[in-house]
What does this fold into?
Amino acid sequence: MSLRLLFAGTPEFAVPALNALLGSGQAPLAVLTQPDRGAGRGRRLTAGPVKQRALEAGIEVLQPEHLRDDLLLASLRDLQPDLLVTAAYGLILPRRLLEVPRLGCWNLHASLLPRWRGASPIQQAILHGDSETGVSLMQMEPGLDTGPVLARLATPIDSLEDAASLHDRLALLAAEVLLDTLGRLAAGKLPPATPQDDSLATHAPLLTKKDARLDWNEPAVRLARAVRAFNPWPVAWADIEGRELRMFRARVGAAVNAKPGQLMRGHGCSDAVVVGCGEGSLEVLELQAPGRRRVTAADWLNAHPDWR
It folds into this structure.
């Protein structure tokens, strides 16, 4: 069965799924992606990864500011799509759009729904110490990530894994889930979608820089998870010795006789900046001062011998 597909996505997470469609000979009729945004110091308008890949493949790209435009909906209806697949698109699809494709709309979500509905499922899974996560493919409905689940694929979370590496692994799993489910649909072997248990739902809100500030009164175990969860964005940060520092890598240190937020000197650790926490200590391994480049803690200590 050959399907007339639309694809909606914007960031790097969605690219493997789009590549999977292209590689399997199921190129979308058109791609929906968010408008170009300013990037870099000059805020120069830059196309997102999905748009760049779609243009390389010669696919029509649509970039509406919102999805309630009558002309947009009419043009999508004219394409007579069977199915719309979304992955990290970034805009809520209104009911009128959900009803355009003959088979409705599917969404690839980077969690095992109903756990971590929302914008930051990868970060929240790490932050809360989940042992596993995965990808869910759901039939979309007007609610936020509330639709019944067509397929899911789980994967363990390594104790040292950060959001960047988990993001990349889940993006590949999303492509795998999508192709497998499309194959089942084509073969007439796709089981009915499973409704989510709303009582088990947890929510993953949009993150801001404020969310990434470390509270030294918390246990070191949680702060180490926060550093992993917020790398590469919004990046964990906190004050150490009166300086606002960003932290990209850290590990749990030994119990120390120190106040929360106190820099530990004379600890004999040459590769880490050690800070007291509410419970235990945090050993910061890679950090960055405002306006400076990222450095290892060893390089930082060499440049700041009074921190040893």
